[in-house]
Write a structure and sequence with these properties.
Helix 7 (199-205) links the parallel strand 7 and strand 8. The protein contains 13 helices and 25 strands. The chain is globular and about 110 Å long. The chain is 30% helix and 25% strand.
Length: 552
Amino acid sequence: MTLVIAVLLAFIFSHIYYRVDLTSEKRYSLSASTRQILNKLTNPVFVQVYLDGEMPVGFKKLRRSAKDMLDEFRIQSGKKITYEFIDPFDIDSQEEKEEMMKTLYEKGLQPINIQDRDEEGGVSQKLVFPGLIMNYNGMEMMVNILESNSSQSAAQKLNSSIEGLEYKMIQAIQNLSADTIYNIAFLEGHGELDESSVGDITYELAKYYNVDRGVIGGKLNILDKYAVLIVAKPELKFSEADKFVIDQYIMNGGCVLWLLDAVHVSSDSLQSTGFTAGLYRPLNLVDQLFKYGIRVNPKIVQDRQCSLIPINIALAGQQPRFSPVPWIYFPLLTPFNNHPVTKNLNLIKSEFINILDTVSATTGVKRKYLLYTSKFSRLISPPVGISLEEIRNPPAPKEFNLSYLPVAVLLEGSFESVFKNRPTDRYIGEIKYKVIEKSVPTKMIVVADGDVIRNEVRHTATRDIPLSLGEDRYTKQIYGNKDFILNAVNYLIDDINLMNIRSKELKLRLLNKERIKKEQFKWKLINVMFPVLFVIFFGVLVLLIRKRRYTG
């Protein structure tokens, strides 16, 4: 009977899925969106994780967390998730090892050179590919799991990477297994950034969505098939017909990513002559954005937290000698860390940015700021002259008396049409068209700088080559522009609240290194001696008890 009951219980419990997460931050609990996607999987997913072999303790923790997450995925999906951990350097042949590294890099996995210090002070270097490749129905998707926020310490980066594991993994699975591929469009016809200037982000978005470019031309419903419209740094005025098409697109639930400059500054003139002017540039969008609850304030931001530009410091007649110097017109924007779009992002590089004002009178619309300037900012109003001589004679520090100026904002809710109670037949030629005056719940993001989405371009004799978005070509620093745009588009499209997984927060519990160094001998002694003394004490106690019991 005992044997039969044991076998029966083992069979029953092998078919029962029940798990308890005892951690305070529920680090092992999957979100409802993740469970929904995993439950709908129809085909197996094979995951290759290139995070194995000899590594520092922090990366071993990241490896263990990735394995735990994949185990949770496997159980929730009904064992449709399988995985293996691979050490890409566990190859005897040096030629094959180099070929493996080249292949992984070409597929999109970003290597990192890490330094590991031992207790004796020795330093060893090792190249690591902290990423994975997901395979589903013959399709592959690369996922880099290590965060690259330069403002964080190494321990914070690893903790942020662990926080983001669930989102990055499930997003890749969702994109591979989704039945519907969403369409997004870059607007043209108003002097927007050309294909080369947004080439890198277009390539990244094309991994997940169908990406088009085109002119509205006043054609009603031309945008209906697109989930997101991207307006990237227009320089020409919008016609009322185009404004009406965009307005009705929003009223029907369309999402827009606005990246606008209200002040025109010619970087080419500044580069060639050392001087340019900042002039107000109306785009005929003020009334429309104001109706939605936002206004781009036509003032230029100067910020002491800024990126560097190369300046020739050689004397006249000498060989040019360039040196990087801070340029207060290129602020480094701080992401708001408590929102899924901007959580754990690196600083955002910008150029000649403006600021945003919200309209409090707008009802039914929620606002959330995403990007800020630093604590030391100031504003100047156009028209204004901008000269490289300002590098030698910058404003006094006390003049940077403004703090945390908003540069990007998310608007969510039901928007009111700017064409409410206005005749529209002259715009579209359809007198019987009924204007939608109130939108269904939708979203838009407004950024007061068009250069946030613009990548540098290397010009050759045959073609223009887009460089990586967010990469400073002079300092080689990688900023968070690409991740910000990708997260913004993903958030606007997200219909199952997948982006909210990025809000997951794990507490970083670090040991006090100074105390470890100071008290290490004491704790080593305790760890070595206490177990021995405890065993001796317990043994003596048992002997005394036995002696007392049996000698009596």
